[in-house]
Amino acid sequence: MQDLDRIRNFSIIAHIDHGKSTLADRILEAVKTDLSREKRKERVLDRLDLEQEKGITIKLQACRMSWKGYQLNLIDTPGHVDFSYEVSRSLAACESAILLIDASQGIQAQTISNTKKALDLGLKIIPVLNKIDLPNLDITEREREIRSLLGFKKEEIIKVSAKTGENVDRLLDEIVKRSPSPKGDPNKPLKALVFDSFYDEHRGVVIAVRVFDGKIEYIHGKAEELYMMQRKESFKPAEIGVFNPNLLETGILKTGEVGYIATGLKDTSYFTVGDTVSDKKGTKPLSGYKVPKPNMFATFFPTDPEEYENLKIALKKLSLNDSSLSFTEQRSPLLGSGFRCGFLGLLHMEIIQERLEREYGVNLVVTAPTVEYRVIKTNGAELEIQTPNELPDPSEIKEIREPWARIAIMTPEKYLGDLMKLCQLKRGEYVNTKYLSAEKEILLREQYITLEYDMPLASLISNFFDLMKNITSGYASMEYEIIDFFPADIVKVSVLVNHEEVEALSFLEVKEKARLKAVTLLKEMKKVIPKQQFPIPLQASIGAKIIAREDVQGYRKNVTEKLYGGDYSRKKKLLEKQKKGKKRLKEIGQVTIPQEAFLAILKT
After folding, report:
1. Domain 4-178, CATH among 3.40.30.10, 3.30.420.40, 3.40.50.300, 2.60.40.3930
2. What pLDDT, on the 0 to 100 scale, is given for residue 47?
3. Domain 492-602: what homologous superfamily?
4. CATH number of the structural domain 397-487
5. Cα–Cα separations (whole angstroms), residue 430 to 259, 406, 462, 485
6. What pLDDT sits at residue 445?
């Protein structure tokens, strides 16, 4: 029996692009993991093509390794702010975490945020300075930064190169030495945390678990019935094993270990991430896990109506591997049937969209992202709306509330003024400025600050992140959390093409910003809507009041070209005839907005 003292469960936390997946690969190589089946990808634990291309981790991965007689369970986590729910899942299954810091970039906002999460869960933090192979680095300064901002001692910091593998052996020794062994009682009823789930063609739904108490066995095709404590459902395991990093059947998982349970079931709704698996019905579930809630919404329509069923199947499969993706059916008179999807952020939406188009071959039209508003009606009823079409008649509305987020931007001090202007432009309210050097005797070459603002979530999802990166030349990083819903003067802006409303382009906006946004949108529409034989008016309105207008000029045929002289009245007669024809055509003409134009408009 595996002694609990010989097990180490650890995670790697870092800011995006600090070398986390590369370090995970070097660790796998150092412990002689067989990677022949992985076809030598650039980063072994990044399985998706998108992860390989973008150089980011989207799905968490787990792997069991053996080092000097110890069992090490690594759980690789994503680094982008949108995927913070993945980080919280994996951290809940560990006792320690490697805090990876890029020696060229230093500490970023995400680093501090994830460190706080790990400390709140009681994890042992092992600070690691990565990319020491790069030229012209001031390692001493980075060590001062880590000591000053995070409070570690100089001798606690391990310096490695994930690219060359330098000092990775020493890091493994330090994980064994510093990381606490798991606690748990093998004789108690089974308690296992579900920290991930995915669908396998042959095994059905596979759940990744960390066993806290008891054990799970599947020997000679026999296994006890297991219970999902929150869901209050039961199932029988079809296979039990570990991640190596591929699935390796072992038939047993003991206290402290990390592995998988193949359920053989097709229904994904039974297995909620964060639930507790037990072999006794009355077991108290593990605490401290929150189910992720979508923050922003967009509607996906297939460009070909015949692809609707394919889109439905693809979303079902993706939602199994991604517990934070939610979707409901929606119909538009212009675009047909589609799905209203909920996401954690803009990158999350982009990833889902690209995966649907690449992995499942579904071509999409995507509406502009929106947030969820709360509407208090005059009769006291409360509604949650995500689209302009769901907004009740203004006479029935007492108050509309919009979600606000508290953002923390970590940046070099020289960008402070420009960032404050950006936050104010996006309706932000100043909260605090924190200088990050805690020890007075340590002088950093570049002073870092954390700028805190409260801001409407709608402002945050409308290209705020890109603008922030442009202003700070990529040096600033951001973390945010939803705080509450607050009253706002929200109006519905209807977009009309040739006097007919195009529902897919209508939007909700604060009254003071509505006209500016409408003018920008109509200018973009004017560029991409093709000319017709008659002029096309493009309008934006709030109720019956037109607040912006642009015109797409019609084609003009030179009807007087064939005249070679004679009285002016002949020319005038031809022009009058053309004018009447244009007027009649405008009355009966239909404007079809092509798919390409829609995509161009929605991207704005």
Report:
1. 3.40.50.300
2. 43
3. Elongation factor 4, C-terminal domain (3.30.70.2570)
4. 3.30.70.240
5. 46, 10, 19, 17
6. 52
User: Is there a contact between 465 and 472 (Cβ–Cβ < 8 Å)?
Assistant: no
Strands 296-302 and 233-235: unpaired
Between residues 156 and 54, the one the model is more confident about: 156
How confident is the model over 539-557, as pLDDT tens digits?
999 988 999 999 888 766 6
360 and 373 in contact (C-beta within 8 Å)? Answer: no
Asked if 131 and 142 touch (Cβ cutoff 8 Å), the reply is no
Give me the count of residues in the chain: 604
SS3 state at 176: helix
Task: Give yes or no for a contact between 89 and 356, defined as CB atoms under 8 angstroms apart.
Answer: no
Task: Match 């300075």 to its residue by tokens.
Answer: 129
What distance in Å separates the CA atoms of residue 346 and residue 460, rounded to the nearest whole number?
A: 10
For the record, the structure tokens of 223 come out as 């296994």
Where do the domains of the chain lie?
4-178, 191-278, 296-368, 397-487, 492-602
Residue whose token pair is 């805690």: 438
| Beta-carbon contacts of residue 216 (< 8 Å; ≥ 6 apart) | 190, 192, 209, 223, 226, 237, 240, 252, 253, 261, 277, 279
Three-state SS sequence of 454-496:
EEEHHHHCCCHHHHHHHHCCCCCEEEEEEEEEEECCEEEEEEE
Residue 76 pairs in a beta bridge with: 12, 61
Domain 191-278 class, CATH top level: mainly beta
Query: Which tokens belong to 528?
Result: 């991409």
- What mean pLDDT is reported for the chain? 79
